[in-house]
Each structure stands twice: as C-alpha cells, then as structure tokens.
Amino acid sequence: MIGDDTHVRNNRTRWNEISDDYQRFNAPQIRGQAFTGDITWGVWGIPESRLNVLGHVVGLDVLEMGCGGSQWSTALARRGAHPVGLDLSERQLHHSRRLQRETGLEFPLVQASAEEVPFAAGSFDIVFADHGAFSFADPYRAIPEAARILRPGGLLAFGHVSPIYEISIPDGAEAAGDRLVGDYFGLRLISDTDGLVSANLPYGAWIRLFRESGFVVEDLVEPRPETGADATHRDNAEEAWARRWPSECIWKVRRV
Ligand SMILES: C[S@@+](CC[C@H](N)C(=O)[O-])C[C@H]1O[C@@H](n2cnc3c(N)ncnc32)[C@H](O)[C@@H]1O
C-alpha cells in the first residue's frame, strides 16, 4: 500500500460513504464553535483558550487540512483569520458549503489530498488539523507538503490519535485496551475496522520527519480530559483510559 495512492482512493470513497453519519453523530460536538468562535481540540473538547496551540490568528492565512464540515475554519473566520478548507471528500465539502450558507461566512473550499495540494510554496501562515488529513495521509508525503506551502516562521499544528493509543487497540476492537498489542515500529498506514486507512508513526519517527522537512518542534501537547468530560460517543472506560494514558496528541511545529 505504501508508495502508491491506494489508501487515498480508499479513504475518499469511504469518507463519501460515512460523511452524512459523521456529520449527524460526531460533528455536533464541534458545531457550536462555528457560531461562537470558541474552539475546542480533540474528542475531549479541550478549549484552545487553555491549550493555546494556534494563538493569535487575526489576519493570518490558515489552511485546514481535512476540514470535513468546516466547523473549525468557520470558527477561525469568526476570529478574524482568512481560512481555506481542504478535504479529500466531496461529500464532506458538501456539508462545508451547507454550513457556509447557514452562517453566511464564506471562504475557499478545495478538494484535494494533503499529500499533493494545489497551492504555491509559502502560501500560508498556519496549516492545521484536528483529527483531519494528518490522521489519514501518508506522513512522509503530507508533512513535506505542509512545509512547502508554509511561509518561513509558519506554524503546523495538528491533533491526532496518539501512537500509544494506536498500538493498544486489540484486533477487531474500536477502542484501546490496557495492553500494548500492536506493532509500534510498524506504524505508518493502518487498516482500521471501519474500512478507513489511518496514519501514525512512532514518536521518534515523527520528530525526525519534522526536522528533515524543515520544522522545529515547539510542543507535543497531550490533552487529558477532566473527570466527567462531555465527549460524544465516549464512555466512562474510555475517559478512564485517557486519564491514565495519552489518547491524543497535538503537535506544534514551526517552519524554520
Ligand atoms: C475525522 S474527519 C475530521 C474533520 C474535521 N476536522 C472534524 O473535526 O470534523 C477527517 C477528515 O479528513 C479528510 N481526509 C482524509 N484523508 C485526507 C487526505 N489525504 N487529504 C485531505 N483530507 C483527507 C476526510 O475526508 C475527513 O473529512
């Protein structure tokens, strides 16, 4: 699978199939931010105001990689940024257009893969995603693309499932157990039970890839839910897991 774009074609088909359900059941957790501008990260909904990952965005050119229904980009437009929403799936972009009609906030929407984006070098101040394209694209293609289109000093920030969580999911299960069961050093493109191909790397490989692509690592945020966190479709066992171990991580790396 690695070295061709089978995973990209697979994921485009699959996201088109599951997009309506995703927007119905998962996206409501972040829908509010499109109307208030109050952004929250990850499945545990930790506020940007606490994590300070993106920081000041007024007047900045911001690309959301894997924007889905564009709830994030809409919130950033509300906060004074100039967002562009990019996604692989035409059905997800259909939901983005629907939200634009609802809010009256318009910005460019582009259909492409994060592995090959149709923008000139140095087009953006921030490239970011929250469980977006960097969770599904081959990191060895997507990270150098992000570096290419960022201006010097630009920020790449993205949240995704942690490598530890990734290797704790037993075969056929949908959530992590309390044992390491997967092959840590084999992480790259992973066939999931829901038919998607997701992406991840060992921590050291992420850091080497960032450095080789021209980034310096500023932070690796490991969001930890409060007890009783309000997260869609997450039960008490998953919350308990995420209070013991890092279920997600947010990379914050800067273009040299
Ligand atoms: C889990 S959804 C998250 C969307 C949005 N960030 C949210 O929180 O609702 C992941 C998105 O990434 C998109 N995606 C997957 N692979 C991609 C790729 N190679 N390039 C661009 N987008 C991709 C999917 O179509 C989907 O809309």
Automatic annotation (TrEMBL):
Residues 63-158 form the Methyltransferase type domain. SUPFAM superfamilies: S-adenosyl-L-methionine-dependent methyltransferases (SSF53335). GO terms for biological process: methylation. Keywords: Methyltransferase, Transferase. It comes from the Bacteria. The keyword Ubl conjugation does not apply. GO terms for molecular function: S-adenosylmethionine-dependent methyltransferase activity. This is Methyltransferase type 11. The lineage of its organism: Bacteria, Bacillati, Actinomycetota, Actinomycetes, Frankiales.
